[in-house]
Amino acid sequence: MLLTLTDLIGTFAFALSGGLVAVRHRLDLFGVLVLAIAAAVAGGVLRDVLLDVTPAAIADWRYPVTAIAAGLVCFAWHERVERLRNPVQLFDAVGLALFAVLGAGKALQFGAGPFAAVMLGVLSGIGGGIARDVLVAQIPAVLQRELYAVAALAGALVVVIAAAFDLPATPAAFAGAGLCFLLRLAAIRRGWRLPVAGGGE
Amino acid sequence: MLLTLTDLIGTFAFALSGGLVAVRHRLDLFGVLVLAIAAAVAGGVLRDVLLDVTPAAIADWRYPVTAIAAGLVCFAWHERVERLRNPVQLFDAVGLALFAVLGAGKALQFGAGPFAAVMLGVLSGIGGGIARDVLVAQIPAVLQRELYAVAALAGALVVVIAAAFDLPATPAAFAGAGLCFLLRLAAIRRGWRLPVAGGGE
Amino acid sequence: MLLTLTDLIGTFAFALSGGLVAVRHRLDLFGVLVLAIAAAVAGGVLRDVLLDVTPAAIADWRYPVTAIAAGLVCFAWHERVERLRNPVQLFDAVGLALFAVLGAGKALQFGAGPFAAVMLGVLSGIGGGIARDVLVAQIPAVLQRELYAVAALAGALVVVIAAAFDLPATPAAFAGAGLCFLLRLAAIRRGWRLPVAGGGE
């Protein structure tokens, strides 16, 4: 119950990021909703398609409905949402942490090896942002911006390593999500970035 | 039989739109064929992958062959096809109506809930155009242009609502397709558009 | 064994192309790795999703690890890799030939019809390059550049035609791969291109 609630908060935060990008690119109302849905569910859908499982976003209507609600909020009050950038980034970090950890756990549960589980955890976390940016013909921010995917990677790694050593899954998930969340917050505050080949800016 | 024929006409029309976009971006012959196929089958393929069904475009060679034929037509006579924009838009509206209605029906048949069925119906109708535009690094027209997805949405809704009330499926499909087709035609004629956040042009 | 080794060489070469594109677009370290993986595995993953099979890149960790290694090589020594363009193109041609032939064979094995098998073989060969270019918001090179997909098409055709006539599969695969490889080499050397509609450059 608590898990689903947090999951839906993450979905809402991801969808807000999609809706804002759509408004900035002057998409129409439908475009705003599509980007909200894509940003919120694409990561999980990709993971589930690769695991050959029915995607959660198809099986459970609460995910797309939450994303649509976030899209409508962006459409109606985009200026206010833009000004709330800090709280939105906070929720987004919650979403990233949850999606990475739950994604890796789901992959393990459906028989993926440890390496694939880490990759699918990261994909769950970042797939939505990639779909969002591809749909407005931009290079995905996650491939360029301050530390984002690495936080997801750290969270997914904790889950998979814990499983490899037969440690209990629930505390491992909390630890992984906490690590991911804190890494992402620190990256935002301090502007941590990954290096670029050849250096320079 | 009649259904398949209409379905192939829709496929042909969608493929023409892909081929024309490819020619305008000066893609080579292969690029024209790829965009024709992508525009014609991507929506249905996405729907079937999400439903975990073998995509019709893989199972039945007539769909890709029809798309390839449309691509060759665009390649050889693109100026003439450009001038036929009105009939092509007409066929495209037929395709949209059919794909949305059949897509929603197929989703229901394979166990999707009503909400997911509407989304998959819309996706069947608009997925091809999105794939086409992403492949030439443009923001998908369906996210910006005059009423297009909303017509698909209306058609899919009719099918799903009828199923929810146990009304007979065939007349519902005709009604949904008719509504979608007329909405789309009216949108083209009168330039109906969805609003953009913040208004203005 | 020899097959897997060659397959991994192809994966490495495809991943190098992804890593180089990422470095040129100034993506960060993570972006370089994502593009290396996408370029190496997207074609096969797409094929396997359409065949409803667990993707090899998920089932066998050696593929993503090889791609990541190639990405790191690009990141660390991108100037040197750029200068090795000729050998890289050679490996890439090996990868293309292998992926097209193996992709068509796998499609037949999992029950695809001959037409679908040819399409899936081509998709296996070119899907990675398409994903790579879409992720940096460029029109895929394979839709514009000198003969590339046609080489994959020729290789896949040999495999599918041989199967249709019940000829032994292994020599057919060798013949198809050889044909694809030689076509691609000749296209690079002589700058063979497909025509563009309307002609002219």
Report what the structure shows:
3 copies of one chain form a homotrimer. Chain A is an all-alpha fold. Chain A has one domain. Chain A is built from 8 helices and no strands. The model of chain A has no long low-confidence stretch (mean pLDDT 89).
What oligomeric assembly is this protein in?
homotrimer
> Segments of chain A where pLDDT lies below 50 for 5+ residues?
none
Number of helices of chain A: 8
Order of helices and strands of chain A: HHHHHHHH
End-to-end CA span of chain A: 45 Å
Measured by DSSP, the beta-strand proportion of chain A falls in: under 5%
The number of strands of chain A is 0
The major β-sheet of chain A equals:
none
Let me know the average pLDDT of chain A: 89
- Global morphology of chain A: globular
Number of domains of chain A: 1
Largest interface (CB < 8 Å): A-C, 27 and 33 residues
Q: How large, in whole angstroms, is the Cα Rg of chain A?
A: 16 Å
Structural class per helix/strand content of chain A?
Answer: mainly alpha
**Fraction of residues in helix of chain A:** over 70%
